[in-house]
Structure formats: structure tokens, C-alpha cells
Amino acid sequence: MTRLTDTIKQYLTPHIVLSASKHLNESENGVSKALGSMTAALFAGIIIKSEQKSLMEQVFQQAIGFDGTVLDRLGVLVNSDNLTQHTPLEVSENLVTLVFGGKSPAVVNAVASFSGIKHSSASILSAALAGPLTLGILNKLIKQEPLTPAGMVLWIESQKGEILSKLPGSVAALIGLTTPPKHQNVAASVNLRNWFLSMLVLLALGLVMVWYMRGG
After folding, report:
1. What is the Cα–Cα distance from 58 to 149, expressed in whole angstroms?
2. 39, burial (CB in 10 Å: exposed 0-12, middle 13-18, buried 19+)
3. Taking Cα atoms as reference points, which of 29, 35, 33 lies closest to residue 11?
4. How confident is the model over 17-26, as pLDDT tens digits?
5. Percentage of the chain surpassing pLDDT 90?
6. Any idea what DSSP says for residue 134?
């Protein structure tokens, strides 16, 4: 299966990012970061709630009923009317609420702070582009494999590393999906190496003592 980050890059082209930035009067870098982090947050939110079978069934039904061809028409969405009316089908906005619940405004705010764009712009991007992108990817995946709701969840979980690589720490903490900081992993590796070297030294000293006590 294709890596999630590669799939996202395939559809969120520089042209789409540029068009959205012009319509929202935001920087291209800010829009790119907002779209990437919000899309990652939606997939991460699904992972967090993956054990809630009824909710996963709702996500699955939204995805399978979504028009997957939207992925090939994302550029059409990037105009002043569509971008401010949260199209298509408003189902993408429903997905945001379904996944984040009451935390939706806080998640959008965290994404806005991370990307350096206005809260209103982040809100529009989440419903008008990140939502359709997420549902479109799931729609195509479900139909191509094909996948059941459980299979959909397993695929998303298999992409956890990719998702975390694009997820801002503030958003991860907000939705309850965190990983140990890299410096902690490095410290643990160093401690393990030091322990191993200490054991080798003690073993060597023990062998020397045994040799000495036996008279060389």
C-alpha cells in the first residue's frame, strides 16, 4: 500500500496551496503546514478512537459514501466561493466534529498557532480541503483494496509513524496521541550502551582476578 504522506503530497500540489493562500490572504508556507497538520490530525483522531466500533462504522460509511473523484478536483474547490462555504457535501465538516468532538475548536486553534495563520483560515481549510482530502483518500482505499471498517482502521494504524511525523506536538497532546521526545530515546540508548560497557569492564576485572588467584 502507498504511504500516507506520499498520497497527501500527490493531491496537495503547490498549485492548490498557492491558490488557497491567495484566497485566504495567508502565506503559502502557513497554508501548507496547516493542511498537512490538520490532515494528519484527522487520521490521528481516528487512531485514538479506533476501539469505538460504532464511531469507526460512522467514519467508514462517511468515507464510502463520499465522492472519491473529489481528489482529482481539489483545485476546483480552491476558489473564493467554495473555500468559504465549506464544500463539498458538508460531510467533511461532520467528519471533523465526529473525530474531535468538543475539542474541534481547540484542535483548529492549535493548527492555526502551529502554522502561523488565522484561526478562521485554519477552520476553513480543515473543512474545505483537509476534510475532503481525508475522506477522498479513505474512499479510494476502501474501494481499491477493498476494506471493511476493521481493515480501514488497521491500515490507518499501520501509518501511525507517518502520521506522527506530520502532527504538531501541541495537537498530538490535545487529542491524546503522544510519543516520547526524541531526546528521551537517545538518552535511553546512551544509558543502555553505558550499562553494557560497564558489564564488560566488570567481567574483564573478574577474569583478571580469577587468573591472579590461580597464580597466573
Report:
1. 9
2. buried
3. 35
4. 998 899 889 9
5. 33
6. H
User: In angstroms, rounded to a whole number, what is the distance separating the alpha carbons of residues 191 and 216?
Assistant: 35
Q: Which H or E element spans position 45? A: helix 28-48
What is the distance between the terminal CA atoms of the chain, rounded to a whole angstrom?
63
Q: Cβ neighbours of residue 101 under 8 Å, at least 6 residues apart?
A: none
What's the rounded Cα separation, in Å, for the pair 110 and 70? 27
The answer to whether the beta carbons of residues 64 and 143 sit under 8 Å apart is yes
pLDDT tens digits, one per residue of 35-93: 999 999 999 999 998 889 999 999 999 899 888 888 887 777 766 455 444 455 466 77
Cell of 6: 506520499
Q: Which cell numbers hold the place of 90?
A: 458538508
Task: Map 77-130 to HEC letters.
Answer: HCCHHHHHHCCCCCHHHHHHHHHHHHHHHHHHHHHHHHHCCCHHHHHHHHHHHH
| Cell numbers standing for residue 206 | 573478574
Cα distances from 214 to residues 48, 116, 202, 207, 208, in angstroms, run 63, 73, 18, 11, 10
Cis omega (within 30 of 0) for bond into 105: no
DSSP string, 158-205: HTHHHHHHHS-HHHHHHHT-----HHHHHHHHHHHHHHHHHHHHHHHH
**DSSP secondary structure code for residue 71 in this structure:** G
Alpha-carbon torsion (88, 28, 174, 165), positive or negative: positive
